[in-house]
Design brief:
The strands form 2 sheets. Strands 4, 5, 6, 7, 8, 9, 10, 11, 12, 13, 14 and 15 form a 12-stranded mixed β-sheet that branches. The chain has a 3-stranded antiparallel β-sheet with strand order 1-2-3, with no helix packed on it. About 20% of the residues lie in helices and about 35% in strands. The N terminus is likely disordered. It is of the alpha+beta class and about 375 residues long. The chain has one domain. It contains 6 helices and 15 strands.
């Protein structure tokens, strides 16, 4: 198989056609832009112009390797993330946890190349504005959090994900429950005879089958993002994926995937199976069910290795890492922040005082 990706001029830089400086990808312009003279250049379309789906059974053979352009790697000894940075960039802290325990290393260039990418659309200024709005909306957080978080700033990084397509044929069996009511006689507390309707359930065997198609089930392959945050970003619009070009990485960082293809596919299967179980449960007739068993058969499985854009504000508070993320495509924000013990304590104390005052006033009446 021939390599369908052009590594770019000289294999490493993208010179400005006007002044000769290095071009970088600009999120606001959605194009290559010179930071000195402002010259802009459209990113050429990859050969074929289509995002390719690779059959999973042939993935290791068909997938291209490396990034198609030289990159330097920085590995964090604390969170374990490996981030690819432009050659020559001096990186003293980890993008994800702000640890200074980072180690430069040689890129092996054997990892599966990204098949497609969602380019950054949200620029750094917009990401900062969303961060400030988020900080202003927080309750019960340390008073100095805003100052400390701002000091660290933002970093734009392409986070690795896998996407999976599949057809799933499911057969299910269960016991379907049908409610009916019987009249029951009983005596109340005064000894009087009363009647009431009591719900009963009649159980009958049931079985069925269904076929569903899944498109772009995404699995986060990052080690730098906590799993809870990485999985929260399931709202990327993969319809905007564009074939990968090395130009998209010019001036940007990209994390290497830490979860390999087959372990990621196992996670994808689990997500699809959970969805199928819910769908099969809704197919069961009657009012309720029990002992549901579902057997799934997966076929036409394809995958893509994709890079999705995330702005990261990683900051440390009392030597603990916290992260705030902005979806570089949609502007969606998620994050974690420490709680202030004293703010919570005094708020609870205030609530207790209010309750006591209300009780005293009510008693005096």
């Amino acid at each position: 198989m021939t390599n369908a990706f052009d590594p770019g001029p000289s294999g490493d830089t993208f010179p400005c056609g006007q002044c000769g400086a290095k071009l970088g990808y600009d999120a606001g312009a959605q194009a290559m832009k010179c930071p000195y003279c402002g010259f802009q250049q459209a990113i050429p379309q990859a050969p074929g112009g289509l995002v390719r789906e690779i059959p999973i059974e042939e993935g290791m053979r068909l997938a291209a390797r490396g990034y198609g352009t030289p990159v330097a790697q920085v590995s964090c000894r604390e969170c374990g993330a490996t981030v690819n940075v432009p050659p020559g960039e001096q990186t003293a802290t980890c993008t994800f946890c702000r640890s200074q325990q980072v180690l430069a290393q040689q890129s092996a260039g054997t990892a599966i190349r990204p098949e497609s990418v969602v380019p950054f659309k949200v620029d750094k200024n917009s990401a900062n504005q969303r961060f400030e709005q988020w900080l202003g909306s927080l309750w019960f957080r340390p008073s100095d959090l805003s100052k400390m978080a701002k000091v660290e700033g933002f970093a734009g990084v392409y986070v690795p994900y896998w996407t999976f397509d599949a057809r799933v044929d499911s057969t299910w069996s269960a016991e379907a429950g049908y409610h009916y009511y019987e009249t029951e006689t009983y005596r109340d507390e005064q000894g009087n005879q009363q009647t009431r309707q009591v719900q009963k359930t009649r159980w009958e065997p049931a079985r069925g089958r269904r076929a569903d198609v899944f498109d772009d089930v995404i699995i986060c392959a990052s080690k730098g993002l906590p799993e809870s945050l990485g999985d929260s970003f399931r709202t990327f619009d993969t319809r905007e994926l564009t074939p990968y070009r090395p130009e998209f990485l010019a001036g940007w960082r990209a994390e290497s995937y830490a979860i390999d293809l087959m372990p990621a596919w196992q996670s994808g299967q689990s997500i699809m199976s959970a969805t199928q179980r819910s769908r099969c449960a809704s197919d069961i007739p009657g009012d309720t069910h029990r002992n549901l068993h579902v057997d799934d058969h997966f076929s036409h499985v394809t995958f893509k290795h994709v890079l999705l854009p995330v702005w990261i504000a990683a900051y440390r508070y009392q030597d603990k890492p916290f992260q705030f993320l902005v979806n570089g495509q949609t502007g969606e924000v998620i994050g974690k922040a420490p709680y202030s013990f004293w703010k919570i304590f005094f708020f609870v104390l205030f609530l207790v005082a209010v309750v006591v005052i209300i009780a005293v006033v009510a008693k005096s009446r």
